[in-house]
Amino acid sequence: MNYKVIVENEHDVTGLVEKIALNDSLSQIAYHANITLIRESDSKLPSFSPGMEVRISGIPYQKSKLAPLLHPGVIWEVDSQGSGNRNISLTVYDRTIYLSKSEDEYLFPKGQSATQRLRKYAKDWNIVLDPDLSDTGEKLGKSVYRARTLYSMIASDLYETVKAGGDMYHPRMTNNGLQLYKIGSNETVHELSDFINLNQNRTLEGAVTRVKVLSPSEPVGDEASHVLAVLSKYTEELGTLQKLVQDEKTKTSSAAKKLAASYLNGIQQSFTVTLPDINTIRAGDAVHLLGMKLIVVSLSRQLGEPGVLNLELASSDFVKRRFYIGY
Questions:
Q1: Statement: residue 327 has pLDDT above 60
Q2: Range of the domain at 254
Q3: Residue that is last in its domain, among 95, 110, 133
Q4: At residue 89, does pLDDT exceed 90?
Q5: Are 167 and 129 part of one and the same domain?
Q6: Tell me: the pLDDT tens digits for 247-302?
Q7: I need a labelling partner for 167 at 20 to 30 A (CA). Which of 116, 146, 224, 262 fits?
């Protein structure tokens, strides 16, 4: 196996690995691994325990030298079965898992960017940031976060960045620290071929052909909500599928029209692909498929030689609506 699993920077358990599965998604922050070990009766292994450090390394696609694929990682759960030659299952996450499991409160003034706020979280929580941390640029409004997970705050900052007209970013732990990864910014965009399976899904589920943006001010008495903007598209071909939107930071007609336009969408199209593994692809990366540039929404991979990769793919506009504008 062209992979290594090192526990506590000391114990090489690679020889006992039966399988390694990795999962990544834009709907979560932490890269997730399931490792199955077959423990031989005479093997000298540590007593696995949650909290231990794990490093999964491999030879990156089209490279020749071993490099970390998931590091730093932490054992989150241990499941042992049988006696003697036992099967041991390890659930491992990169250390951003602590951001999705820990809660706090923050009050941020108007005018800060998501990057500035991330630096504040990192300072308070002793989070190592990538020295080349991306600058999201857009100035955000005042935010009051009460008893929320750190990840939900980071995600809210990134959603607001997109609604303000900025680019899409996703938090990603790298070997150098936490980074805000710009969706689709990977230098190498792989052309997917040699499919084991390819499926295309087209649906009206999730389509929006008319948007009505309501004032954030609550109506008085029996009055109806004040409408800031109404936009329509695709109604003639697809019918009327209306969405009501009320955003506390959208208070003018021009801002409401801009917000409404971002929700309008027709037939929803996505792809699921199974192919030999390209072990450097992550959620948020761009790939080429059948002449289209698409974004990886989620993935699961079985490491091996060559291993198997399952991808969920969609357009950049689809990703924006599903993971950013809709929040």
A1: no
A2: 208-266
A3: 95
A4: yes
A5: yes
A6: 887 888 988 898 888 888 888 889 999 999 999 999 999 999 999 999 999 999 99
A7: 146
d(CA 122, CA 132): 14
Q: How confident is the model at residue 73 (pLDDT cuts 50, 70, 90)?
A: very high
Residue 303 located in a structural domain: yes
Which are the contacts of 211, defined by CB distance < 8 A and separation ≥ 6? 229, 230, 231, 232, 242, 243, 245, 260, 261, 263, 264
303 neighbors 5 (Cβ within 8 angstroms):
no
230 within a domain of the structure (yes/no): yes
CB atoms within 10 A of CB 215: 16
Residue 159 CB burial class (10 angstroms; 0-12, 13-18, ≥19):
middle
- The SS3 call for residue 100 is helix
Segments in 185-303 forming alpha helices (H): 235-238, 253-263
Q: In the listed set 61, 95, 129, which residue is the last one of a domain according to the structure?
A: 95
d(CA 29, CA 158): 13
118 and 31 in one domain?
Answer: no
Q: Is the pLDDT of residue 85 over 80?
A: no
Q: How far apart are CA 132 and CA 117, in angstroms?
A: 16
Inside any domain, residue 131: yes
Q: CA 245, CA 215: separation in Å to the nearest integer?
A: 9
